[in-house]
Amino acid sequence: MKKITQVAIASLLIAGAILPAAARQKDIDHSVTETEVLVAQKAWCKALLDIGAANASGGQEAAKALAEKVIDSAYAYQSGAVLFKPTLAASPQTFRTARDGALAYFVGGNPAFPNDTGFALKGWTKCEIENSAVLIHRDTASTMGNVLFTGPDGKVTTVDKTWSFVKDEAGKLRIVVHHSSLPYASR
Question: What is the pTM assigned to this prediction?
Answer without folding.
Answer: 0.83
